Amino acid sequence: WCPSGAITEKRNIKEVLAAIDDDTKHVVVQTAPATKVSLGEEFGMPPGTSVGNKMAGALKEAGFDAVFDTCFSADLTIMEEASEFVHRLTAAKDEIPHLTSCCPGWVKYCEYFYPELMHNLSTCKSPQNMMGATIKSFYADKMGIKPENIVNVSIMPCTAKKFEVAREELEVDGNRDMDYVLTTRELAVLLKSKGIDLNTVPEREYDSVLGESTGAGKIFGATGGVTEAAVRSAYFFATGSNPPADLLSWQPVRGMTAVKEATASIPGVGTVNIAVCHGLENARQLLDGIKASGSSKWQFIEFMACPGGCIGGGGQPKSTVAAQNSAKLKRIEAIYKEDTGSAKRCSHDNTEIQSVYKEFFGKPLSEKAEKYLHTTFVNRHDRLFS
Ligand code: SF4
């Protein structure tokens, strides 16, 4: 059952091709971490093949004006969300447990069935929409392009993201953050329609300004990745130092166990109890337990609607169930390999992130950051049942 009403996948290939052909439009594309370890499967490569730079090359060849990396805005999300979490732990304890908000399937589920917990949701937009808002503000200013002449496209593993981009709460000054979402499968169709073969296309770097990413941004695609990335930066924000080695390879939050539990010791903040949950049935059981007991033993809970996280999203390449389960594990393995192979492992060390704050947002949770990078939620339960 799809909580976002995206049971039938709506295709947006035609609209994106029309935008690329429209000379009055500046068409920008971003690619989600989970798509970079799965798109290759549509071109005959084994699951878990990392094709990020090939995808960047293919998108350039397809005619996009700029190719950015959602791993960059995952780092931006962590800057905001880790700051928000530390603030809640120290000064807004009624908003603990802190519930993650980067999965639109989970967010909509919470709005429908647990509206009393909406104030616990992080107000951070998802990486997709943080990128969209940054492109139509900071990047538009820098390039001298009117936001209305920019068309923002994302390549996502997710059908629920198509619902997310239509949320009215995500508009800033009358501009939608994002215009079109293409799933991994749709991108394969678009590339093939243009005769672009991922096997032979030259690799390209992501465009700068919004293209650099750290290992922390890359692991967003796997269940537990958001938590691990957030704890790395929360540790830094609380102590001024990067986390110790065990938090840079934090095994308790990794893997396919339905609900994973972990404890982090952060000097100055104390002991933080964390849960990581993937799959909405698991979410229901966990939340009903919290409601029944009247409290949460965890201060931070990550929720992802899809089993395995975004690597198992509804827009990913399809095969038999057994093959899909094996593919998910291979995709996760590839994501952690990219993380350990990254020169920088923490979002706050991303040089382009530091520049965006210096030149535009000021600091995490600033008034400007709140305007562009944060959102509100809707009580859909009351709308549905009143
Ligand atoms: Fe989309 Fe699934 Fe990822 Fe949620 S977990 S953002 S529904 S792909």
Number of domains: 1
Major sheet strand order: 2-1-4-7
Q: Could you describe the largest sheet, including whether it forms a barrel?
A: 4 strands, parallel
CATH topology: Rossmann fold
Flag low-confidence runs.
none
What's the total helix number? 15
Rg, alpha carbons: 19 Å
CATH architecture: 3-Layer(aba) Sandwich
Order of helices and strands: HEHEHEHHEHEEEHHHHEEHEHHHH
The oligomeric state is single chain
Sheet-strand content, in percent, reads 5-15%
Helix content: 40-55%
Number of strands: 10
| Ligand list | iron/sulfur cluster
Ordered list of secondary-structure elements with their pairings:
Elements (H helix, E strand, L loop, with lengths): L12 H9 L4 E6 L20 H11 L3 E4 H22 L6 E2 L4 H10 L13 H17 L6 E7 L3 H5 L6 E2 L2 E2 L3 E4 H10 L21 H4 L6 H15 L5 H4 L10 E8 L3 E9 L1 H14 L6 E5 L16 H20 L10 H11 L5 H7 L6 H6 L1
Parallel strand pairs: 1-2, 1-4, 3-10, 4-7, 9-10
Antiparallel strand pairs: 5-6, 8-9
Helix pairs in contact: 3-5, 3-9
The structure holds iron/sulfur cluster.
Iron/sulfur cluster binds next to helix 4 and helix 6.
